[in-house]
Amino acid sequence: MLTSHLVPAAFLLGASLSTALPTSGSESAAGQCSPVSFKLSATAQNTIFASPPDPSNETQILNFITQGLSAGGVPTAGTQTVSGNFTIDAIYCKPSPGVVGRDAVQILVHGILYNKTMWSGLGFGDQYNWHAFANDRGYHTLAIDRLGHGTNPQIPDPLNVVQGWLHVEIIHKLIQAVRTNAANNALDRAFGKVIYTGHSYGSQIAPWLARNYPSDADALVLTGYSNSPNIATIASLQYRPAARVKPQRFAGYPLGYVTQSNATQHTLSFYTGAYDPAIPVADLRFPDTVTDGEASALSGQLLFNATGYAKPVFIATGVSDVFFCSPPLATCNAILAATGRDVFPTASSFGYFAPEQTGHDLSLHYSAPLSLCKIHEFLEGFF
């Protein structure tokens, strides 16, 4: 059984949304995509860690990450100002000429161990391709590489620079650029509406963005997310420095950039239920990273809610997501409803969807087309 809920500001549970799956004809209207890069200046107050690991000691780094992802986190010693000029690579896709376009762009922000390519479905067809689905409905899409990830040319200090606080400030500057067609807007046009769309870590930093900059996003779509993370499961992931797991791809990266080292564990953690078994195999051929700074500053970010954000929010998380939900369906639904109530108490509208037989990588399971339908049906009421 698959259900979704649309909830007004009072967060009263509503009736299921009625959604028709797209036809094969509509799926064929793929968008037009091209690589773009943004040059952005940003300043953040990043976390100072009281007992940082030796950057040349793998054991210390991995222990630090495990402690940072565990309940209680690692000791901190205030904040420090981090500033810089950053290059953010992205894939920009726009509707095909035959599709009526909207004055709205979805900014797609990936999770840990991934980059901008995850939104394209890893080459397994349009049923997994967020760009194709959204473009076919008139939305423009912009999948970005967060700082330190993907094809971004800079490899900043992983502990002190690449943290969620700086990600938020960079994304804020990017949103400002695409709203105004400023000189640093690589899209060469302004958008009246911006939809922030995150997955996992990309969703976890959204409340901070919405709280600090409530006018940035006209709606939030958060996948693979809740405010009830399974900390023990997240902390148990087996990491190693990416430069040692994939030396050709990550040559020259500091040891604080780590990736999944156990293929079996990755599949069991990110894929649950009904999925094409070829997808996790392809997934692991091209891994990305998480930094010790991202992982260890995360516990502080989870404490924030988006009080003051008064626009629509939709959460889509698989019932079998081992990190952020829990079967049965009723339990997962209760977690997502509570997340909306507690993290986004002033949202103008709130909806959620929990597909069964679906794990953490929501858009890479067989249920992906239905999840995309539910999300875009919710957006249809506002854009």
TrEMBL record:
Residues 107-286 form the AB hydrolase-1 domain. The keyword Oxidoreductase does not apply. This is Alpha/Beta hydrolase protein. Keywords: Hydrolase, Signal. Residues 1-20 form the signal peptide. GO terms for molecular function: hydrolase activity. Pfam families: Abhydrolase_6. SUPFAM superfamilies: alpha/beta-Hydrolases (SSF53474). The keyword DNA damage does not apply.
